[in-house]
Amino acid sequence: xxxxxxxxxxxxxxxxxxxxxxxxxxxxxxxxxxxxxxxxxxxxxxxxxxxxxxxxxxxxxxxxxxxxxxxxxxxxxxxxxxxxxxxxxxxxxxxxxxxxxxxxxxxxxx
Length: 110
Known about the structure:
Keywords: Plasmid. This protein has 110 residues and is mainly alpha-helical. It has two domains: 17-58; 59-109. 77% of the residues lie in helices and 0% in strands. α1 packs across α2 (37-55). The chain starts with 18 loop residues before the first helix and ends with a helix.
């Protein structure tokens, strides 16, 4: 006869599980717990809870990512301003040289 834990150490739970999910649990039990479905369910629950607790630390990583995104946006904005300034400088220089060339051509034809 199987040894059962005392009621002060564990809880007995009755629940309905969709057939598709239960088939996956039975397959896991067959390959990981020698067919012990209760043990398989406990292992799967613990794995799921570990995954959830790991995700609870991810917001810190999300905050770091948000900081990086913010810094990148600031860099892009600064670079965009520099490109605008350089573009204006190039336009001014081209206009000055065109004006100078027109003046020189006008003097040569006179």
